[in-house]
Specification:
6 strands, four-stranded mixed β-sheet, globular, alpha+beta, 12% strand, two-stranded antiparallel ribbon
Length: 228
């Protein structure tokens, strides 16, 4: 699978690995996948310390039709899954999957199903105006805010507070958030058209997998992608 223009490593140069991670902030599996990716990168560093790894965080909005102010979360999911009992079963399944990643979901705290366009555009702004570490920390912070605390990540004040806590520059951040009302959609990557669901990984533009796979599986695909 060739999804982006990654050139092969030149002879004598350190091998590189570009990981594209497609996600949405309201997808609990995406938080699980992000945690698994972090562990997989640590495992890869032990196995292949010579490999230079870069992660590109790709926004993929699952529910673009949610109104800007969001909708009531609990009724939304009952309607989506068909019954309160189905919601309970799904949450138990997700929590079981999240346990190995150290995630304690607090679905009962969530009041709003937000439109995630502002959060995604903030992530893009962070990539352009901060460091890779700051963008990763912001994404992790917004996931935690939503799934563990129940904060409305469609609220500009929540986005501002979380971004400042990650060390992003205050003046530019305020201007970005002030202009965000004019943004009607997320900045899509050129590879987004073939992504049907998230989490979705692409490694060096060669190998793609969909789902919250365990770290050991991710490492296997990483090694395959480095080798060719």
């Amino acid at each position: 699978m060739n999804t982006s223009n990654h050139s092969p490593t030149s002879e004598g140069a350190a091998p590189s690995l570009v990981i594209e991670y497609f996600f949405d902030f309201v997808c609990p599996w995406c938080l699980i996948g992000k945690r698994h990716l972090r562990i997989a990168m640590i495992l890869l560093a032990d196995l292949r310390p010579d490999v230079q790894v870069r992660v590109l965080w790709r926004s993929h909005q699952l529910l673009p039709d949610i109104p800007p102010g969001g909708v009531s979360y609990q009724p939304f999911y009952i309607a989506r899954l068909g019954s309160a009992e189905a919601v309970v079963r799904r949450r138990a399944e997700v929590q079981q999957a999240g346990n190995p990643a150290g995630i304690q979901f607090a679905f009962e705290r969530i009041e709003v199903m937000p439109n995630t366009v502002a959060a995604h555009n903030l992530s893009t702004w962070a990539a352009e105006n901060g460091t890779e570490a700051q963008q990763s920390a912001l994404i992790e912070s917004l996931f935690a805010a939503y799934f563990m605390i129940g904060e409305d990540i469609g609220d500009p004040s929540v986005l501002q507070r979380r971004a400042l806590a990650c060390g992003l520059e205050a003046e530019g951040l305020q201007k970005h958030l002030a202009d965000s009302d004019e943004q009607n959609g997320i900045m899509r990557s050129p590879q987004a058209d073939y992504v049907s669901g998230v989490p979705f990984f692409v490694f060096n533009g060669k190998h793609a997998i969909s789902g919250a796979y365990p770290p050991e599986t991710l490492v296997q695909v990483m090694l395959q992608s480095i080798q060719g």
